[in-house]
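Tutorial sheet, problem 5. The four components below are modelled jointly, 458 residues in total.
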Amino acid sequence: MLNNYNAEDKVLLAVDCIIFGFDQEDLKILLIKRDFEPEKGKWSLIGGFLKMTETLDDAANRILYHLTGFDKIYMEQLYNFSKIDRDPAERTLSVAYYALINIEDHDEKLIEQYSAKWFSIDEAPSLIFDHNQMVQKAILRLRRRAISKPIGFELLPEKFTMRQLQKLYESILDEELDKRNFINKINALDILVKLEEKDMTSSRKGSYLYQFDKEKYDRNVEDGITFKI
Amino acid sequence: MLNNYNAEDKVLLAVDCIIFGFDQEDLKILLIKRDFEPEKGKWSLIGGFLKMTETLDDAANRILYHLTGFDKIYMEQLYNFSKIDRDPAERTLSVAYYALINIEDHDEKLIEQYSAKWFSIDEAPSLIFDHNQMVQKAILRLRRRAISKPIGFELLPEKFTMRQLQKLYESILDEELDKRNFINKINALDILVKLEEKDMTSSRKGSYLYQFDKEKYDRNVEDGITFKI
DNA sequence: GCAAAAGTGTTTAACTTACACCCATGC
DNA sequence: GCATGGGTGTAAGTTAAACACTTTTGC
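Model answer (structure tokens):
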């Protein structure tokens, strides 16, 4: 270990974002067509480079804001990828972040402008560099989060039906869940408010809308109390 | 997002290691007295800077090897800390790794040479920069790992008693466990071999020694099958 | 009236927890 | 013979899993 910082190597540090969305059917990720070399024209995660004056969280937020027009998105640092030649152009490390956004909220113009597109997880194209690996790791992390705390409301509209919530969990976990057991578990958590309103778009009978209640959540789920879907 | 790598900022990237050990009583971490500025003379995690020619895992291994004389240690990347002024001398990011080593195996000479010392988790001194935060995060991660897979054999000698294993888990989780329930759960995993030998140092009756069986482990626990202590 | 999705409880099985006594040995 | 830590099983409680029928309403 040296005591002279000047003698040390400096590196380029990228931040790449796995942006998850949900369209009431499938879990999706937002990808862009890369418009510069290397690998121009191929699909890629959205990313950018860390600036001297920002933290990694700042950088991830900045990058996301540029593409989607939103800040205050749920976001979490995933892993630092550091294979020597992961970027053929130059030695670059990349810190992957994953983010959850409500697919209906984003600004379509911005997305067009960046040639971005939503892909279902299983239909996503092959990506540049180690981005496929990043996505895989992000899915696993999301899955682990999802079974231990009620994450994922960020992926739904403000008001949603139980069925939508269940479908979201099914697509995150990639398995079917029992309707009654699911509802019982969610209700046991006591973190939602049932509204008077019904959603009439998906059935003749209509289904009650629910809303996530942050206060209830903090009261009932904080302190790392976990549940199991 | 720019398309010219040269215009981007480069940063110093440190790797800091939280080294866990276990002395049959307490969970410990290995700290060093820093012998250079800034913060010379204060306690710190062991660390170093990433070199152009190595991955983060390489760097963490190199740093650990220098201090302990061991390679092939269990190690896992924890998080990338990036607060702007975390190092007052210069903008530096740090990727924290945590490692588990058998406290009896390490090379004491090397440790003396670096003025390193083992501290019980609750008696550790205040550390430089954001190193306390790193340690906290590492403990939480270790705890989460410990309850979901039988990690931690790296912290024990090759042959160990059930009591030792239980004490290790108790010190990781910072709670007392029931002796019978613990043994039943561990046995249910079927990943240990019970030896004929007994350890006579801790009681007159002596207690059977066990050994971790990698093959059994792979056969019975692989595929992310988790358990709960 | 019928198709399509919504809503609702109970029984069974699995797992987790709590708990207390005898054993072997060295001194 | 007694003090010390080692070893062992069961019953009760809790949690998770499996399961099917009725309701509403637009067409």
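Marking note: Chain B touches chain A through 39 residues (CB under 8 Å). Full credit if you identified this.
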